[in-house]
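Hi V.,

You were right to ask for the full record rather than a summary. Here it is.
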Amino acid sequence: MGFRKAAVNFFLKGILNAICKIDCGEFVKALSANKPLIVIFNHINFLEVPILVSHSYPLHVSGLVKSETWKNPLFAFLFNTYKAVPIDRKGAFTESFKHVCGMINDGYHMCVAPEGTRSKNGVLGRGKAGIVLLAMEANVPILPVAHHGGENVWKNIKRFKRTPFHFRAGRPFRIKFGGMPNKEEREMILGEVMGQLAVLLPEDMRGIYADQAKKENKYLEFI
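Predicted structure:
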């Protein structure tokens, strides 16, 4: 698997660099400085996880990916190479969460998109509270990583232009809460978590979390 991963990474990174101008040094530096953690990112298109895992190689980085992706043989090959974890977006999260925790224990940084679906236009959408439960179960810090530019990728491909992808990494933090939060408390924590993504984005891309990006945080502890 080591040779296979190195070979796949070489070709994948080459293809991605051919269609994109990728600025992710800040993200790689943040990963290198931290023990395995959960990476949250805003979800614009399908390129984010391939960019993050290929450009951080040889660090151990994988991601939580919707299960239907495995129906595509090429994507199945890629995600199996990087040990991605499938998740059923209809709600069967328990096994996926256990798998993610196991991967973190094995030394992997795990990438998760809290929105759960692509925005396509780059504006940050509503997050799902599952990220709160996952982070509390895994008991590891969260690293917020936001990017912009990817919303133009298809338009640029048609014009034979490379798309600038700009990644920014925030400060790692832990969720500070005793016990298990109820539904209302999970939503409050989620708002603060998503606010850490919003603050890394241009103001016109912060969406419903624009105000949260400017507020103090009650449930987050920065490290």
